[in-house]
Amino acid sequence: MANKIEVNNAHVYYGPDHTLKGVSLTIKKNTVTALIGPSGCGKSTFLRLFNRMNDLIENCRVEGEILVDGVDIYSNKINVNELRKAVGMVFQKPNPFPKTIFENVAYGMRVNGITDKFLIQQKVEESLKQAALWDEVKDKLKKSGLSLSGGQQQRLCIARALAVSPSVLLMDEPASALDPLSTIKIEELIYNLKSSYTILLVTHNMQQATRTSDRTAFFYMGELVEYEDTRTLFTNPKKERTQNYITGRFG
Question: Is 251 inside a domain boundary?
Answer without folding.
Answer: no
